[in-house]
Amino acid sequence: MASVEKYKDTAGKERFAARWREHGQQRKERGFTTAKKARDFAQAKEADAKRGMTPHRTDVTVTEYARYWASTRGHRPTTAKSTESIIKNHLGPTPLGRMKLADVRKSQVQAWASDRAKKVAPSTMKIQLMGLVKAIFTSAVDDHLIIKTPVVKIKLPTVAAGVTRPKIIPLTTADIEAVAEALPARYSAMAITQAGLGLRVGELLALRVEDVDFLRRTVRIDWQFTDPAEKDEDGRAIRSDLKTPGSHRTLPLPRRVADVLAAHIARYGVGEDGTIFTTKAGKHVGEFGDYIFRTAARRAGLPEGTSTHDLRHHYATELLAAGLSAVEVGALLGHEDGTLVLKTYGHAPVDATERAADVLNKLWAV
């Protein structure tokens, strides 16, 4: 039987351990930051055991193993949903998905990839679909189900058949100011803040007043909200750790952003836990990216499909145009490219941070 137990890690933080046994082996354990994640993982292990799904079966199909693999990852809710969607729509219905793991050859993976590439964008094919299949077969090797992975040197088209990649036109500061004006007054500062800091929308929503150093003009990014439906015992959204070490970063705070944040806090205050952007009821703003922002973008006359990610894209393109390198901008964005910078130097280069602050202050000068 799988179980969940609470404990404290070496730093004294409360964590939750999911414990289980697999196929009569020694007891195993996996730690999680929330009780819900631990329970979900433990329940998945129990369900696998009841239906006889273990990594030692020799007749397991690619789709069966893919679902087993996904259940062991401890993914955040949004990542879990995305993974399940890929398995359901792009693996399960295909000949590859119905094959036994041990029977799969490179040519069959190539045939699957060529077929899927006709249906999705190149970036989706390479990063999401191909990345998932590669991880599944690598795990199958580790579980001794197959001797070696057939996912090697798979060729992918650079452009999907029948798909024309639209030219990306970055938003200007005038565009962003127009969106801010079109947003409800309580959310107006969010557009300026996201664009001026280059944040992911989850990072924006999780921003706390203690993360902003108005004196030193910096902002520390350490948390995000990933799933508005995931609540704590008091009904509040749960902060999640960032995906990679490179996502933890200190950013320059442009004067324009500092001014709108200070005005917002003075007018609306902050949530009980210090969250800067909240609803009138003091709750997490769960629909900003999907509904509130898109509605305002249409009112502002911006192109159809403009999203909060375009605010982040604006940040990146302006810094690149100003002469910062891709590695420097990657570090400021919290991308994997920035992870290498953080591991090597411990933080984004000081000169890059200072130049970014200078560029952004000039860009948002009023």
Task: Explain what this protein looks like in three dimensions.
- The protein has 366 residues and is mostly helical.
- It has three domains: 1-52; 55-165, Tyrosine recombinase, N-terminal domain (DNA polymerase, domain 1); 173-363, Intergrase catalytic core (hpI Integrase, Chain A, Orthogonal Bundle), CATH 1.10.443.
- 47% of the residues lie in helices and 9% in strands.
- It contains 15 helices and eight strands.
- The chain has helices at residues 35-50, 62-71, 77-91, 95-98, 106-116, 122-142, 173-182, 188-197, 201-205, 255-268, 288-299, 309-321, 326-333, 336-345, 350-363, and strands at residues 3-8, 14-20, 28-32, 212-213, 218-221, 223-225, 239-241, 249-252.
- The strands form three sheets. It has a three-stranded antiparallel β-sheet, covered by helices on one side. A three-stranded antiparallel β-sheet has the order 4-5-8. It has a two-stranded antiparallel ribbon with strand order 6-7.
- Helix 2 (62-71) crosses helix 6 (122-142).
- The protein is globular, with a radius of gyration of 23 Å.
- The N and C termini lie far apart (63 Å).
- The model is unreliable at 338-348 (pLDDT under 50).
Write a short abstract of this structure:
With 366 residues, the protein is mainly alpha-helical.
Provide tags for this entry:
366 residues; DNA polymerase, domain 1; hpI Integrase, Chain A; 3 domains; 3-stranded antiparallel sheet; 8 strands; 47% helix
